[in-house]
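[Discussion] Sanity-checking designs against the backbone

I'm trying to build intuition for which residues belong where. Below is a structure token string of 154 positions. I'd appreciate it if someone posts a full sequence so I can compare it with mine line by line.
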């Protein structure tokens, strides 16, 4: 397995990160008929990079960014046994590097960051039909928790 370097993203990385965002949207379109027509954006990457409540990380191989992800501190529901949790998002691995440990390296780094902030509950969302993503998250310890359902009414 290749050794990937994971580091905090900077504003200098924004162009490649915006490209990754569009790749995520393209990959998720088949799973979500409710996504609006292009152009759309999921994230305010600049704000996430600058936020004290978030950590955007990238994985590099030979100085080329090949993956990304972020951790964002959120307020938990008042009925849960924790006040805050970390939400993971923007998880992307370049197609040439999938299955080679990039996702694990980024998730591990984001979990370390979360723990450094005193947070021990970490969550993410994934489309129910996105089997490769579900497998990847399962490999790093995530378990299915809640299934969100929807219906479109005319």
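Best answer:
Here's mine. Compare freely.
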């Amino acid at each position: 397995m290749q050794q990937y370097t994971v580091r905090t993203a900077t504003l200098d990385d924004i162009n490649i990160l915006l490209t990754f965002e569009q790749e995520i949207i393209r990959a998720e379109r088949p799973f979500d008929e409710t996504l609006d027509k292009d152009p759309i954006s999921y994230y305010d990457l600049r704000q996430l990079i600058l936020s004290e409540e978030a950590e955007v990380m990238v994985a590099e191989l030979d100085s080329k960014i090949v993956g990304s992800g972020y951790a964002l501190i959120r307020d938990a529901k008042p009925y849960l046994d924790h006040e805050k949790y970390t939400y993971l998002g923007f998880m992307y691995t370049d197609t040439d590097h999938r299955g080679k440990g990039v996702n694990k390296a980024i998730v591990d780094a984001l979990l370390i960051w979360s723990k450094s902030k005193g947070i021990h509950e970490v969550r993410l969302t994934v489309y129910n039909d996105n089997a490769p993503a579900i497998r990847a998250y399962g490999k790093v310890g995530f378990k299915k928790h809640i299934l969100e359902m929807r219906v479109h009414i005319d």
